[in-house]
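Issue: copy button drops trailing tokens. Both records pasted manually instead:
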Amino acid sequence: MVKKIPSVKQKITDEKEKIRVSFVEEMTGACKELQEILALPEVSSDNEAVLAKVNQYLGVGGMDWKAGAMSGTVYNCSQQGLQLISDVYGLTSLTNPLHPDAFPGIRQMEMEVVRMTCDMFNGGPETVGCVTTGGTESIILACKSYRDMAIERGVKYPEILCPVSAHAAFDKAADMLGISIRHVPLDPDTMRVDTAAMQRMINKNTMMLVGSAPQFPHGSVDPIEAIAKLGVRYNLPVHVDACLGGFLVPFMKSAGYDVPPFDFSVPGVCSISADTHKYGYAPKGTSVLMYKNAELRSYQWFSFPDWPGGIYATPTIGGSRSGGIIAACWATMISYGKEGYVKATKEIVATTRKIASEIATVPTLKIVGKPDVSVVAFTSDKFNVYSLSDALKARGWALNALQFPECVHLCVTRLHTEAGVADKFVRDVREATEIILRDPEAAGGGSAAVYGMAASIPDRSIVSELTAVYLDSLYASKADISR
């Protein structure tokens, strides 16, 4: 209510405008060399001219993501794999799974992607699934299924019960589906969900339980077996979010690493989401959502039998979908096979644990959670860790800034397994930390200031308003700087 006071409201408006200009300048500044096209050209262009512009647009920006500068973001940069994806997409770019009569081969490919992924997660012939556009859609659809199932069971006010660390897509699902969500606290040492607390929070409105394998912020794998036991005891569906590590954890045992049970072999696990476009190395725009049986999946379907345009039914949120992306995903999985995925998993997990063990020896730094798979999160008990993130950005690294608690993480990809990349990262962390410790007062600007300010604002709606300013800037042109 305080922000509605005229003087306070004006102050917030003024600050938002400053932030808006800053964001727009940052977004458009990276493309300052480009001549903006703000209206459809009057004349046609030949392919050579268009491709020249594409290369010009792709040439802007300062992050050397091909050399492993980014946390996550780009999971593979194999030229052989990229060529295969390009070739397959070129052959299938006009196809659409909405029309299986016209493109039966695409339907076959999607079915096979689902079956291969179900098999990876120890799903028998009764398991089913679908290909979605990404982890967020997979999660939203799972939540939609369990919402509708809960309503059928007589639940009036369905609630998602998930760990604090569960992906924000669950919060997006709750917002979009008009349901509630409750967040379960974590064990402060392991950053795995506290299952005793989860049990205490189950009530008559609970529609599903969630666990992550692993969770995004700290890379810890939640105790899926314990969560699944709660699901069986209280007759609640359990969803395992393996969007991040879905093409790592199934291969860890074969790669020589222990991993606790997390898949359909665990009684009580009802659905799993796994992104093919991360460690599956498929192009962006694919994920697989799996269910333990067709009855559960049936709650996901949408149909409108009374439309004048005909009986309308779709398996996922989209109507028309890109058959080219599905075909490229299928081709990537066939290309890698179990052998390729096991090899990649071994390299990534080994690199992750090497980085974690080295960072743990850096004075004043400590690992947050358990780097079970591919994420290394760390913080400092002596200085604002966001200042270390800023210092590393100046050296060419882009880490993920996390909050509650304050820490940063590196999501290790195949690019980080290349010779010398992990060693350079650890060396830069050591050197940047030493510099900050010599002059702690200098470690307060940049993202340290931004995140410090955001964390100190008790009214989180104000933070949401500021993020809306950022999202607006994604669509800004140079003219918007002075509007």
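Record 2 (pasted manually too):
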Amino acid sequence: LAVPAAERIGRQEAYKKMSKEIGRWQPLVKKNREAETLQFPLNEPPNARMATSTLVEDFHPENDMEKEVAKLLGESGVEEKTLMEEEDLELNKLSVEQVKERRAQLAKMRALMFYHE
């Protein structure tokens, strides 16, 4: 056979093979298109929400900057657990209005720090 005819036959065979391969995905694609909503990733169940305290407890510094900050906090005697315990003790002594006022003050400080950066 001539080169163009051989290439054409090769392309036709490759097309048939790929059509078969792609054809097996058609039912899944159709189901996803007809679904009202999709959740990603499609094959994994949704994870339970994690509380902030569990994230803080499980935190371990990974990169250089985090290690340096952890080292500085350790040297200064500031630890996340002690800060959280102190904050909880302070909140237990306050009334509901004072707690709301304190949270608003902290939110304002965080916003100011964010804008300053």
